Amino acid sequence: MSNTATDALDAPTYELTALDRCDSCGAQAYIRVELGSGELLFCAHHGKKYQDKLESVARSWHDESSKLLGDQRS
Predict the structure, then answer these.
(1) From CA 33, how far away is CA 56, in angstroms rounded?
(2) Do the domain assignments include residue 49?
(3) Start and end of every DUF7455 domain (predicted)?
(4) Could you point out which of 8, 61, 62, 65 has its C-alpha 20 to 30 Å from the C-alpha of 49?
(5) How many angstroms separate the CA atoms of 69 and 7, rounded?
(6) Are 32 and 41 in contact (CB under 8 A)?
């Protein structure tokens, strides 16, 4: 078993649920950003809007916005 920092960032500690709400507008959150001082939750729209500004300071960026597309298997 590997205990690298990369493994820790790749494996989310939890899955976002319908109870998790966007800190900007209150819609369902699909993105969780961990910062040194806490975390921010965003809907897909606001996550994309703030991504460029936050990526350089984020400890982790957990994005579940692919759930909005549903199951795309043929």
Answers:
(1) 11
(2) yes
(3) 16-68
(4) 8
(5) 26
(6) yes
pTM of this prediction? 0.75
Beta-carbon contacts of 11 under 8 Å, excluding residues fewer than 6 positions away, are none
Q: Kindly report the number of other CB atoms within 10 A of residue 57's CB atom.
A: 10
Q: Give the domain extent around 22.
A: 17-65
Is 71 a domain residue? no
Backbone φ and ψ for 62, nearest 5 degrees, come out as -105, 115
Q: How far apart are CA 35 and CA 72, in angstroms?
A: 32
Q: Is residue 48 part of a domain?
A: yes
CA–CA distance, 51 with 60 (Å, rounded to integer): 12
